[in-house]
Amino acid sequence: MKTDQILDAFAALGIHLSKQDEQLNQLIESAHIYNGWFTSENIHYAIAELSRTLRKENLVKWQQTWSKNKPIKTSKNVGIIMAGNIPLVGFHDLLCVLCSGNKCSIKLSSKDDKLIPYLVDILVQYEPQLKEQVEFIDKLENIQAVIATGSNNSARYFEYYFGKYPNIIRKNRTSIAVLTGNESQEELEKFCDDIFLYFGLGCRNISKLFVPENYDFTKLLDVISETYQHINSHNKYMNNYDYNRAILLMNLTPHLDTGFLLVKEDVSLFAPTAIVHYEYYNSVKEIEQTLTEQSENIQCVITKTGILNTKTVEFGNSQKPELWDYADNVNTMEFLLDL
Question: Residue 116, exposed/middle/buried by CB under 10 A (0-12, 13-18, 19+)?
């Protein structure tokens, strides 16, 4: 099958997702029964973003980054172990494997095991030949390569079982933001999405803030309170908030509290659900040194353009990655085309 045929099928899927689909809507509305974190609002957002990235012009732009340099070789069977922390998080790996001319054996997460199979069914309607290129399995067998996404703990098992194959094994990562204190109301409102979309469970969600000495949190916390007050109606999220708030109070740990988000000073990049850490900085050089030292733990950096001499993401765009924004900065297409 030619690459253009595969790309056309994904473009058709993108158009399909921009329209009403009653069966898909039923899946979305029932998803919270199987995974309490998968609200209909978050799934609709994920699907809308997927539809946007699958526009033909985006697929063509992405294709130009790899098709001229890497001719497709003999098809391999690539095992994909998908995560389930946020909706459709494993879809990009599926896209890459198929567009690289390979087959995929997918081990779905039990937390997200209905949406992707349905999208594959739609994809096959537009290009029936793809039916033979995708299978959903319970155990990876007869594979020639592996792409596995999980935690630091699961990564040890992945490396043990699949280390003999060419592989991409992804561990825990998180994202940070650098604030200057000069952010506008609009920028802070957009920034709230970087913290709260998917309840902060994605590796592209912000869990750590770098703020200048004597930073006044008042404006930021006021915007957060106004923009995401509705999150306090979600039981699973608020259970995490209540638990973590109790721990901070028992330990007499100084912190700020919006009533649904806890903000505390901490050097750790990783924070529990409903908590965001912060750390003061004196110079941009300090932050850039931290970025270098912690590069294997950071997925993306949110700040104003021009603040840092490194790749950054604008406020509100952390959960809007493009096709060429590869997880962990590992070029998945390059890996697949080199098999």
Answer: buried
Q: Please calculate the CA angle 216-218-221 and round it to the nearest 5 degrees.
A: 125
Q: Does residue 68 register a pLDDT over 90? A: no
What pLDDT score was predicted for residue 153?
A: 93
Domain ranges of the chain: 3-172, 174-302
Q: Is the CATH code 3.40.30.10 the one for domain 3-172?
A: no
Rounded CA separation 324/331 (Å): 8
Q: Which amino acid is at 147?
A: I
Q: What is the pLDDT of residues 198-244, one digit of tens each?
A: 999 999 999 999 999 999 999 999 999 999 999 999 999 999 999 99
Q: Kindly state the average pLDDT of the residues 26-51.
A: 96
CA pair distance 285, 198, nearest whole angstrom: 32
pTM: 0.95
The closest alpha carbon to 299, from 13, 83, 17, belongs to: 83
Q: CA torsion, points 146, 151, 153, 155, in degrees to nearest 10?
A: 20
Amino acid at the residue 202: G
Nearest to 177 by CA among 300, 310, 272: 300
For the sheet containing 134-136, what is the strand order? Answer: 134-136, 103-107, 77-81, 145-149, 167-170
Name the 3-class secondary structure at 104: strand
Domain formed by 174-302, architecture:
3-Layer(aba) Sandwich (3.40)
Sequence-separated contacts (24+) of 279-287 with Cβ below 8 Å:
279/208, 279/209, 279/210, 279/211, 280/210, 280/211, 280/212, 280/213, 280/215, 281/178, 281/210, 281/211, 281/212, 281/213, 282/212, 282/213, 284/308, 287/178, 287/210
Q: What is the mean pLDDT of residues 125-146?
A: 96
Which of the two residues, 257 and 74, has the higher pLDDT score? 257
Which pLDDT score, from 0 to 100, does residue 35 have? 95
